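Posted in: Structural Biology > Protein-Ligand Complexes

Title: Requesting predicted complex, 1,3-dihydroxyacetonephosphate in pocket

I'd be grateful if someone could produce the C-alpha coordinates for the following input. Sequence and ligand are given below.
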Amino acid sequence: MKKLLMAANWKMYKSVEEGVATARELVSLLDKLPEDREVLVCPSFIMMHSVCPILAQKAGCYAGAQNFYPAAQGAFTGEVAPEQLMGLGCTHALAGHSERRHVLGEMDELIGRKVAFGLDAGLKMILCIGETIVERRLGQIEEVLARQLESGLAGVLSTATAQNLAVAYEPVWAIGTGEVAGPDEILAAHAFVRATLTSLLPKEGAQIRILYGGSVKPDNAATIIRLDNVDGVLVGGASLKADSFSQIVLA
Ligand code: 13P
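-- Reply #1 --
Done. Output follows.
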Protein backbone atom coordinates (compact mmCIF):
# COMPACT_ATOMS: atom_id res chain seq x y z
CA MET A 1 0.00 0.00 0.00
CA LYS A 2 1.14 3.52 -0.83
CA LYS A 3 1.82 5.45 2.38
CA LEU A 4 1.13 9.18 2.51
CA LEU A 5 4.36 11.19 2.70
CA MET A 6 3.89 14.20 4.99
CA ALA A 7 6.95 16.40 4.50
CA ALA A 8 8.20 19.54 6.24
CA ASN A 9 10.55 22.00 4.57
CA TRP A 10 12.04 24.26 7.22
CA LYS A 11 13.89 26.32 4.57
CA MET A 12 16.42 28.79 6.06
CA TYR A 13 14.70 29.02 9.43
CA LYS A 14 15.67 28.08 12.99
CA SER A 15 18.86 27.95 15.04
CA VAL A 16 20.22 24.50 15.91
CA GLU A 17 18.64 24.79 19.36
CA GLU A 18 15.24 25.68 17.88
CA GLY A 19 15.44 22.84 15.37
CA VAL A 20 16.29 20.34 18.09
CA ALA A 21 13.42 21.55 20.26
CA THR A 22 10.93 21.41 17.38
CA ALA A 23 12.06 17.92 16.32
CA ARG A 24 11.75 16.64 19.91
CA GLU A 25 8.28 18.09 20.28
CA LEU A 26 7.22 16.71 16.91
CA VAL A 27 8.38 13.18 17.69
CA SER A 28 6.44 13.25 20.94
CA LEU A 29 3.29 14.66 19.30
CA LEU A 30 3.51 11.92 16.65
CA ASP A 31 3.59 9.15 19.21
CA LYS A 32 0.60 7.55 17.51
CA LEU A 33 1.63 8.02 13.89
CA PRO A 34 -0.91 6.12 11.75
CA GLU A 35 0.49 3.15 9.79
CA ASP A 36 -0.50 4.75 6.49
CA ARG A 37 1.79 7.80 6.88
CA GLU A 38 5.47 8.63 6.74
CA VAL A 39 6.94 11.89 8.01
CA LEU A 40 9.89 13.68 6.48
CA VAL A 41 11.58 16.77 7.93
CA CYS A 42 14.01 18.78 5.79
CA PRO A 43 15.97 21.06 8.14
CA SER A 44 18.80 23.42 7.30
CA PHE A 45 22.20 21.71 6.88
CA ILE A 46 23.53 23.28 10.08
CA MET A 47 21.23 21.18 12.27
CA MET A 48 21.17 17.92 10.30
CA HIS A 49 23.68 16.44 12.73
CA SER A 50 21.45 17.12 15.74
CA VAL A 51 18.01 16.62 14.20
CA CYS A 52 18.59 13.27 12.40
CA PRO A 53 19.05 11.19 15.58
CA ILE A 54 15.91 12.70 17.11
CA LEU A 55 13.76 11.83 14.08
CA ALA A 56 15.35 8.38 13.94
CA GLN A 57 13.82 7.58 17.33
CA LYS A 58 10.39 7.36 15.75
CA ALA A 59 9.58 4.65 13.21
CA GLY A 60 8.26 6.22 10.03
CA CYS A 61 10.05 9.58 10.58
CA TYR A 62 12.91 10.56 8.28
CA ALA A 63 15.29 13.48 7.68
CA GLY A 64 15.87 14.99 4.26
CA ALA A 65 18.14 17.61 2.71
CA GLN A 66 16.71 20.67 1.00
CA ASN A 67 19.52 20.57 -1.52
CA PHE A 68 22.95 19.06 -2.29
CA TYR A 69 25.57 19.20 -5.01
CA PRO A 70 25.73 16.29 -7.46
CA ALA A 71 29.32 15.15 -6.90
CA ALA A 72 30.90 12.66 -4.51
CA GLN A 73 33.40 15.23 -3.21
CA GLY A 74 35.67 17.91 -4.55
CA ALA A 75 36.42 21.60 -4.87
CA PHE A 76 32.83 22.90 -4.72
CA THR A 77 33.01 25.74 -2.22
CA GLY A 78 29.88 26.14 -0.17
CA GLU A 79 28.27 22.92 -1.37
CA VAL A 80 27.35 19.67 0.40
CA ALA A 81 27.60 16.14 -1.01
CA PRO A 82 25.05 13.32 -0.65
CA GLU A 83 27.61 11.11 1.13
CA GLN A 84 28.21 13.80 3.74
CA LEU A 85 24.48 14.05 4.39
CA MET A 86 23.88 10.32 4.46
CA GLY A 87 26.68 9.99 7.00
CA LEU A 88 24.53 12.03 9.39
CA GLY A 89 21.45 9.86 8.90
CA CYS A 90 19.79 11.89 6.14
CA THR A 91 17.83 9.56 3.84
CA HIS A 92 15.92 11.86 1.46
CA ALA A 93 16.51 15.04 -0.52
CA LEU A 94 14.56 17.64 -2.47
CA ALA A 95 15.63 18.73 -5.94
CA GLY A 96 14.25 21.59 -7.97
CA HIS A 97 12.43 23.41 -5.21
CA SER A 98 10.82 26.58 -6.54
CA GLU A 99 13.13 28.80 -4.49
CA ARG A 100 16.19 27.06 -5.95
CA ARG A 101 14.79 27.47 -9.46
CA HIS A 102 13.56 31.04 -9.14
CA VAL A 103 15.76 32.64 -6.45
CA LEU A 104 19.01 30.70 -6.90
CA GLY A 105 18.69 30.31 -10.67
CA GLU A 106 18.88 26.51 -10.94
CA MET A 107 18.05 25.23 -14.40
CA ASP A 108 16.31 22.02 -15.49
CA GLU A 109 19.55 20.37 -16.55
CA LEU A 110 21.23 20.77 -13.13
CA ILE A 111 18.06 19.60 -11.38
CA GLY A 112 18.02 16.48 -13.56
CA ARG A 113 21.65 15.79 -12.64
CA LYS A 114 20.80 16.17 -8.94
CA VAL A 115 17.92 13.68 -9.17
CA ALA A 116 20.12 11.14 -10.95
CA PHE A 117 23.15 11.63 -8.72
CA GLY A 118 21.09 11.58 -5.52
CA LEU A 119 19.29 8.35 -6.46
CA ASP A 120 22.54 6.74 -7.45
CA ALA A 121 24.13 7.76 -4.14
CA GLY A 122 21.24 6.13 -2.27
CA LEU A 123 19.05 9.10 -1.38
CA LYS A 124 15.30 8.96 -1.90
CA MET A 125 14.56 11.92 -4.13
CA ILE A 126 11.64 14.33 -4.24
CA LEU A 127 11.55 16.26 -7.50
CA CYS A 128 9.71 19.56 -7.04
CA ILE A 129 7.89 21.12 -9.97
CA GLY A 130 5.34 23.88 -10.48
CA GLU A 131 4.30 26.76 -12.69
CA THR A 132 4.54 30.49 -11.94
CA ILE A 133 1.45 32.68 -11.99
CA VAL A 134 2.49 34.10 -15.38
CA GLU A 135 2.83 30.62 -16.87
CA ARG A 136 -0.59 29.69 -15.45
CA ARG A 137 -2.21 32.82 -16.95
CA LEU A 138 -0.62 32.06 -20.31
CA GLY A 139 -2.14 28.57 -20.23
CA GLN A 140 1.27 26.91 -20.06
CA ILE A 141 0.78 24.74 -16.98
CA GLU A 142 1.00 21.39 -18.75
CA GLU A 143 3.89 22.47 -20.93
CA VAL A 144 5.87 23.61 -17.86
CA LEU A 145 5.09 20.53 -15.77
CA ALA A 146 5.92 18.18 -18.67
CA ARG A 147 9.24 19.93 -19.28
CA GLN A 148 10.20 19.89 -15.59
CA LEU A 149 9.27 16.20 -15.28
CA GLU A 150 11.00 15.12 -18.47
CA SER A 151 14.22 16.97 -17.71
CA GLY A 152 14.12 16.18 -14.00
CA LEU A 153 13.74 12.45 -14.64
CA ALA A 154 15.80 12.15 -17.82
CA GLY A 155 18.66 10.35 -16.09
CA VAL A 156 16.58 7.96 -13.98
CA LEU A 157 14.04 6.47 -16.38
CA SER A 158 15.40 2.99 -15.80
CA THR A 159 16.30 3.33 -12.11
CA ALA A 160 13.52 5.33 -10.46
CA THR A 161 11.07 3.30 -8.41
CA ALA A 162 8.07 4.19 -6.30
CA GLN A 163 10.32 3.54 -3.28
CA ASN A 164 13.07 5.98 -4.17
CA LEU A 165 11.27 8.77 -6.04
CA ALA A 166 8.42 11.15 -5.32
CA VAL A 167 7.25 14.29 -7.12
CA ALA A 168 6.03 17.43 -5.33
CA TYR A 169 3.68 19.70 -7.28
CA GLU A 170 4.12 23.17 -5.80
CA PRO A 171 2.53 25.95 -7.85
CA VAL A 172 4.92 28.88 -7.33
CA TRP A 173 2.06 31.32 -6.76
CA ALA A 174 0.79 29.25 -3.81
CA ILE A 175 4.11 29.05 -1.95
CA GLY A 176 4.24 31.21 1.16
CA THR A 177 1.33 33.35 -0.06
CA GLY A 178 -1.55 31.85 1.89
CA GLU A 179 -3.19 31.32 -1.50
CA VAL A 180 -3.70 27.55 -1.62
CA ALA A 181 -4.59 25.97 -4.97
CA GLY A 182 -8.26 24.96 -5.03
CA PRO A 183 -9.32 21.29 -5.19
CA ASP A 184 -10.04 21.47 -8.93
CA GLU A 185 -6.66 23.04 -9.66
CA ILE A 186 -4.89 20.39 -7.58
CA LEU A 187 -6.89 17.55 -9.16
CA ALA A 188 -6.13 18.74 -12.69
CA ALA A 189 -2.41 19.25 -12.09
CA HIS A 190 -1.96 15.97 -10.23
CA ALA A 191 -3.85 14.02 -12.91
CA PHE A 192 -1.53 15.51 -15.51
CA VAL A 193 1.55 14.67 -13.42
CA ARG A 194 0.27 11.11 -12.97
CA ALA A 195 -0.33 10.68 -16.69
CA THR A 196 3.13 12.04 -17.50
CA LEU A 197 4.77 9.81 -14.90
CA THR A 198 3.06 6.69 -16.25
CA SER A 199 4.13 7.54 -19.76
CA LEU A 200 7.76 8.23 -18.72
CA LEU A 201 7.97 5.31 -16.28
CA PRO A 202 5.40 2.72 -17.42
CA LYS A 203 6.17 0.22 -14.64
CA GLU A 204 6.47 2.58 -11.65
CA GLY A 205 4.57 5.71 -12.66
CA ALA A 206 1.23 4.70 -11.16
CA GLN A 207 2.80 4.09 -7.73
CA ILE A 208 5.14 7.08 -7.47
CA ARG A 209 3.86 9.46 -4.81
CA ILE A 210 2.76 12.93 -5.86
CA LEU A 211 2.78 15.49 -3.04
CA TYR A 212 1.04 18.84 -3.07
CA GLY A 213 2.79 21.91 -1.65
CA GLY A 214 1.80 25.57 -1.33
CA SER A 215 0.12 27.11 1.74
CA VAL A 216 -0.87 23.77 3.27
CA LYS A 217 -2.22 24.45 6.77
CA PRO A 218 -3.90 22.41 9.52
CA ASP A 219 -7.33 23.55 8.30
CA ASN A 220 -6.93 22.56 4.63
CA ALA A 221 -4.68 19.48 4.89
CA ALA A 222 -7.47 16.92 5.40
CA THR A 223 -9.26 18.03 2.23
CA ILE A 224 -6.07 18.10 0.17
CA ILE A 225 -4.77 14.65 1.11
CA ARG A 226 -8.10 13.06 0.22
CA LEU A 227 -8.02 14.28 -3.37
CA ASP A 228 -7.27 11.78 -6.16
CA ASN A 229 -3.57 11.42 -6.95
CA VAL A 230 -2.51 13.33 -3.84
CA ASP A 231 -0.15 11.08 -1.89
CA GLY A 232 1.09 13.56 0.69
CA VAL A 233 2.06 17.19 1.22
CA LEU A 234 5.19 19.34 1.34
CA VAL A 235 4.74 22.06 3.94
CA GLY A 236 6.77 25.22 4.50
CA GLY A 237 5.46 27.86 6.92
CA ALA A 238 3.03 25.62 8.79
CA SER A 239 5.75 23.02 9.40
CA LEU A 240 7.88 25.33 11.53
CA LYS A 241 5.80 24.74 14.65
CA ALA A 242 5.57 21.13 15.85
CA ASP A 243 1.99 21.64 16.91
CA SER A 244 0.70 22.81 13.52
CA PHE A 245 2.79 20.33 11.52
CA SER A 246 1.62 17.44 13.70
CA GLN A 247 -1.99 18.49 13.06
CA ILE A 248 -1.25 18.33 9.32
CA VAL A 249 0.46 14.95 9.61
CA LEU A 250 -2.51 13.53 11.50
CA ALA A 251 -5.19 15.27 9.37
P1 13P B 1 4.44 27.18 2.27
O1 13P B 1 3.79 25.97 2.91
O2 13P B 1 4.99 28.13 3.26
O3 13P B 1 3.54 27.79 1.25
O4 13P B 1 5.73 26.62 1.48
C1 13P B 1 5.57 25.55 0.60
C2 13P B 1 6.90 25.06 0.22
O5 13P B 1 7.65 25.73 -0.47
C3 13P B 1 7.31 23.74 0.70
O6 13P B 1 8.45 23.30 0.05
